[in-house]
Amino acid sequence: MEGLRRFFDIDENLLALAKQAEQSLEDTFAKIDEMAAYNEQNVLSAFIKAGISSSHFNTSTGYGYDDRGRDTLDAVAADIFGCEDAIMRYNFVCGTHALTVPLFGMLRPGDTMLSVTGTPYDTLRGVIGIGGECDGSLHEFGINYKEVALREDGSVDIDAIPAAITDDVKMVYIQRSRGYSLRPSLFVEDIEAIAKVAKSVRRDVIVMVDNCYGEFVQYDEPCARGADIMAGSLIKNPGGGIAPTGGYIAGRHDLVEKCAYRLTTPGTGRELGCTLGHTRELYMGLINAPRVVGEAKKTAAFCAALFDLLGYGTLPSADAARADIIQTVLLRDRERLIEFCRGIQSGSAVDAFALPEPGAMPGYDCDIIMASGSFTLGSSIELSADAPLREPYAVFMQGGLSYASAKVGVLLAAKRVLELDKAQG
Ligand SMILES: *Cc1c(COP(=O)(O)O)cnc(C)c1O
Fold first, then answer.
1. Is 237 in the pocket of ligand 1 (CB under 6 A)?
2. Does any ligand 1 atom lie closer than 6 A to the CB of residue 123?
3. Which one of 63, 156, 299, 345 is at 20 to 30 Å from 395 when CA atoms are compared?
4. Separation of 96 CA from ligand 1 center, angstroms?
């Protein structure tokens, strides 16, 4: 705690609480480290098997034909994720894009997409065409959508899935992480159980997973445990805080091929796509990713332990097993939510001086506040927090490239919330 005392203005009471929180997490941190080590070794062995050398970091331009570094990265990603095939590229502009490509790549007019984890993440709603038409949505192309609602407690209604898999259902869609909701995130074991039930109804139904925030959080990935295809963002977990943009799709070879024809064009697929010198950053991000995810999990656990001591509800609880890197704290009112986000921002390496303000965002019925002082715009593997300003005033905090640094943001958030308590008596 000496650095905190010397370089930051944090009082002795809060430091004592931080120490208590950290001591309570000894076993939790040991488990996180063990899992991170396993996943780091998985990634390293995939690099060694693929014979990665500096020649793989060479750049390409134009059509990008025969870009060996790009093609080998695909193979390395598939090996790491325990599946047949993958496409990992900077050409995906965001996570939503990496998820949209498989939807359009695999679904055809007349098919139905069945979401079994309630309504998907906000940005996917326009893609599907839920609640108001979006130009170019799946709905416009005659692809239908239905969902199995979550149970009252936020869990997946697994018993309702078989009846929902009617003949027109081509895909069962699972969102692993919870987005801006308070449902529990899904463990790989939960996804495996859903895939098993779905396949028992129809063997050929495609099980797709939105794997955002889930990579390297457990020992296995969904595609190694029964899912057919998954996708995610490189400015979250698998980019390791280094990838400047991008995404990936991984899973069964025949399905990944279909996705490639949607990513570029039918007929050309994955043979095209120059890398403009970004391949090295993607490899570097990938090798760092498991450790960074471990640091983010420790930061989340520390946040939960500290705010638990301060009397706030947390989800998941500090010592719980984690299925993603998101930590929710129930801050109970608008002012505390704002102060928390300002504290996180003030502990960031970039833009620490900025003061987050709530504001309107398209697609939301209330103001949103966001704290993110990141090197990569919108990166949420770097420490960040966001919250819709509505009941139950829950903040969603995630990321942290290093625990020792990210912990500062959490402590400054706690400090601001405590100051508000004091001011209000
Ligand atoms: C981040 C995220 C996405 C994709 O979001 P982008 O902002 O487009 O990168 C999709 N689903 C979940 C659950 C996410 O967390």
1. no
2. yes
3. 156
4. 6
pLDDT in tens, the chain (425 residues): 889 999 999 999 999 999 999 999 999 999 999 999 999 999 999 999 999 999 999 999 999 999 999 999 999 999 999 999 999 999 999 999 999 999 999 999 999 999 999 999 988 999 999 977 689 999 999 999 999 999 999 999 999 999 999 999 999 999 999 887 889 999 999 999 999 999 999 999 999 999 999 999 999 999 999 999 999 999 999 999 999 999 999 999 999 999 999 999 999 999 999 999 999 999 999 999 999 999 999 999 999 999 999 999 999 999 999 999 999 999 999 999 999 999 999 999 999 999 999 999 876 778 999 999 999 999 999 999 999 999 999 999 999 999 999 999 999 999 999 999 889 87
| Residue 417 near residue 331 (C-beta atoms within 8 A) | yes
CB-count burial class (<10 Å; 0-12, 13-18, 19+) for 310? middle
Instruction: Match 């400054």 to its residue by tokens.
Output: 412
Q: 165 C-alpha to center of ligand 1: Å?
A: 26
Write the DSSP symbol of residue 186.
P
- Of 181, 124, 183, 131, nearest to 157 by C-alpha is 183
**397, 330 contact by CB (below 8 A):** no
Per DSSP, the three-state class of 194 is helix
Residue 383 and residue 403 in contact, taking contact as beta carbons nearer than 8 Å: no
